[in-house]
């Protein structure tokens, strides 16, 4: 999924949402028309659709832009209209404080894995097919013998959910991973 954003903070939030397993779609710069005669407009930085069908309309702003309180008050009005018009199930105002550095690091890895290497991915899948317990990504990469291609293939298995990483941990070569079925 390719994204275009106007600011670093928007790009971070877009990447974080785009790699979530429960998210099926992320739309950017979505226009919302509201008011008694549809005379007003607000552009949501992104609208996220979850697997269960819920839509979340998100506006992204740096915290410094919220200090006066005017924008927050504006968003209360917009949120009321979003509910009134059934545009989305909820509205979120996101800031840089909502960005988890570890999750962003891992999301950036997933974004970098757009290109496919079926041969390396098949070799990685075969290698981890009988994996017992936890093993470092580096050890698996060494066992694959494909160098960077093997490392990327293992990262791809992590992004597919075939290999599991401990929660809230940055993915690095020393990260211990386990096969999905072997975790209780």
Automatic annotation (TrEMBL):
Protein name: TnsA endonuclease N-terminal domain-containing protein
Native organism: Thalassococcus profundi
């Amino acid at each position: 999924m390719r994204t275009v954003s106007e600011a670093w903070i928007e790009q971070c939030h877009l990447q974080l949402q785009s790699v979530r397993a429960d998210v099926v779609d992320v739309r950017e710069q979505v226009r919302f028309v509201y008011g008694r005669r549809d005379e007003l407009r607000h552009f949501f930085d992104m609208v996220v659709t979850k697997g269960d069908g819920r839509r979340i309309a998100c506006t992204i702003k740096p915290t410094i832009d919220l200090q006066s309180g005017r924008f927050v008050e504006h968003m209360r009005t917009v949120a009321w209209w979003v509910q009134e018009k059934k545009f989305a199930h909820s509205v979120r105002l996101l800031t840089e404080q909502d960005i988890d550095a570890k999750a962003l690091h891992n999301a950036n890895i997933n974004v970098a894995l757009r290109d496919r290497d079926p041969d390396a991915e098949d070799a990685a899948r075969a290698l981890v097919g009988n994996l017992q317990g936890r093993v470092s990504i580096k050890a698996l990469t060494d066992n694959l013998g494909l160098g960077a291609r093997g490392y990327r293939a293992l990262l791809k298995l992590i992004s597919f959910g075939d290999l599991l990483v401990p929660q809230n941990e940055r993915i690095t070569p020393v990260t211990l991973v386990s096969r999905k079925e072997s975790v209780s």
